[in-house]
Structures are given as C-alpha cells and as structure tokens.
Description:
The chain has 120 residues and is mainly alpha-helical. Helix content is 80%, strand content 5%. It has one domain (2-119). The protein has helices at residues 2-20, 30-54, 56-61, 66-81, 90-119, and strands spanning 25-27, 85-87.
Amino acid sequence: MKFIMRVVVTSIIAFGLSYILKAGVHMKDFWTAIIVAIVLAILNAILKPILILLTLPITFVTFGLFLFVINACMILLAEKVVPGFVVDGFWWALLFSLLLSIATSLLYKEDNVQRNERDQ
C-alpha cells in the first residue's frame, strides 16, 4: 500500500511539474504521469545503484553533485521508455529531476515526522 501511495504522490507531483515546466517537459495525461512514476521507481531501484557504483570516483571528486547528472539520466531514460512523456533536453531533465526530488522529499519528510510523532 505504501508503494502505491508513493507512486500516486510522485505522479501527482510530476504531472504538476509538467504544467509548471511547459516549455521543456510534456506529459500527455495523468495516466502517463503514473507510468512515469512507476518506471522511475523501477529505474531508481535497479539501475541507479549500479550507475552510482560505476561513477563513484567522479561523484567523490564533484562532492556528490554528479548524482544530479545521474538523476537527469534516469529522467531521460524514462522518456525513452514511456510514450507520451517528452523532455526537451538534458537541462530540462536536470531541472525536472531536481524539483521532483525536492518536492517528494518534502512530502515524505512530513509523512515521516507525523509517523514518528504518532509512534511516540
């Protein structure tokens, strides 16, 4: 159930960001946003750890900033897989991934704070 809620929240945020970033990120409809969220979850679970391990030296040299590039690559890869999801280049993917990460982190942080308060 938790996975489904995270996918729904991520898809809502991604769909909203596609409206905010109309010039560079396009989604056909909300179902496309749900598919994008599922594909991103799969890519982040399987491919992202491998990429992080392979690029560990450059990540150390850039003090972790290269992780933003890996996130943008995940967005561009999701674009290739999901029909109806179009990103107009690397910089738009980087901005989209950054905003998506910030928004989901803030929402999940609030959820974790409320859960911790309830458990105590």
